[in-house]
Amino acid sequence: MARLTSYILGSATLVCALGTGYVMQYGFGLPQSNARPAADVQLEISSITPTSSALVVPLLPTDQPMADPLPDAPVEVKAAFETDVPETQLPESPEETGFACDITMTAEPIAGAMVDLALSAPCHASERVTLHHQGMMFSDVMQPDGTLSIDIPALAEQAIFIASFAGGDGAMATTEVSSLPFYDRVAVQWKGEAGLQLHAREFSAEYFTQGHIWAASAGNLTAAAKGEGGFLTRLGQMDAPEALVVEVYSFPSGTARRSGEVLLSVEAEVTAKNCGAAVEAQTLQILSGGPLRTHDLTLDMPACDAVGDFLVLKNLVEDLTIAAR
Questions:
Q1: Pick from 312, 217, 301: which is nearest to 266 by CA?
Q2: CB 190 within 8 A of CB 245
Q3: pLDDT tens for residues 187-243?
Q4: Which one of 17, 27, 29, 88 is at 20 to 30 Å from 236 when CA atoms are compared?
């Protein structure tokens, strides 16, 4: 890149392993596509003992004479502590309070072979949630009202999505994405401050010109719908600890109006948070409805005196060859 020193690394500089069963649970790794959702955990309230405050009976003063003599007939006096006080029974279930903790999730296909995922978890408001789909996973944060709505690029026509919370609760949703075979799709995912970026240079465009698609110039669905260009989707909240993040590039190869190549690369910026460390990541790629292919990689970042430089990682993902339709 013009403003920074770049290192061109071939696949020999990486430790890359092809595989589809790479699993991670809050270390870097990925779930199996046949992963089952976590079972719901029910919290049972027990051993509740209702309590009440004792009422104090006021004493008659002994240093003053009574205004009226006591009557001869006996008077029945009911002490305050004998007064009937209704006991309040605490509710034992969410149904009795009118506030349910059920977790629900729906998935609806939308334009661009995307899926509109809607998650509702009233008892997990503002909590971190991890979303899984076909080996892709990323972390997000629930809204204060316990909801989350997000658009996710599909990686399978019969798409399965799983949401999991730290305590073991979760939900699953499925949908059919019939438009997926019209798209080529490539993703790179990582954990934490890895400094990774996915770049696509459509029809051999130069860096930072029209046709260079990356996080700072992500393209749009309108161009994709017309067969004119692709778009990039970034998923995951970086401000969460040990964040899981993924960038996905999509190109409408089935409706493209031009022929040519889309040059793909993964780049790593050397930062104060990753210098001198090993960065782990994974790439996923699906071409014209074919099988999903994955590569795992480990990259040893340069020392901290190289902060600000970029590593350009070649041959991690296959360039796209586009034929006009």
A1: 312
A2: yes
A3: 999 999 999 999 999 999 999 999 999 999 999 999 999 999 999 999 998 887 789
A4: 17
CA distances from 258 to 185, 227, 262 (A): 18, 8, 11
| pLDDT tens-digit series, residues 87-118 | 555 545 554 555 689 999 999 999 999 999 99
Residue 129 · residue 148 · CB < 8 Å: yes
Joined tokens for residue 187: 């993703």
CB atoms within 10 A of CB 62: 5
Burial string for 247-263 (b: 16+ CB within 10 Å, else e) reads bbbbbbbbbbeeebebb
Rounded distance between C-alpha atoms, residue 207 and residue 203, angstroms: 12
Cα(281)–Cα(284) distance, integer angstroms? 10
Exposure string for 97-127, b = 16+ CB within 10 A, e = fewer: eeeebebebbbebeebbbbebebbbbbbeee
Confidence (pTM): 0.72
Look up residue 154 and give its two tokens: 């599909």
Neighbour count for residue 322 (Cβ, 10 Å): 21
Q: Cβ of 315: how many Cβ atoms within 10 Å?
A: 16
Q: Please report, to the nearest 10 degrees, the dihedral formed by the alpha carbons of residues 219, 287, 187, 269 taken in order.
A: -80
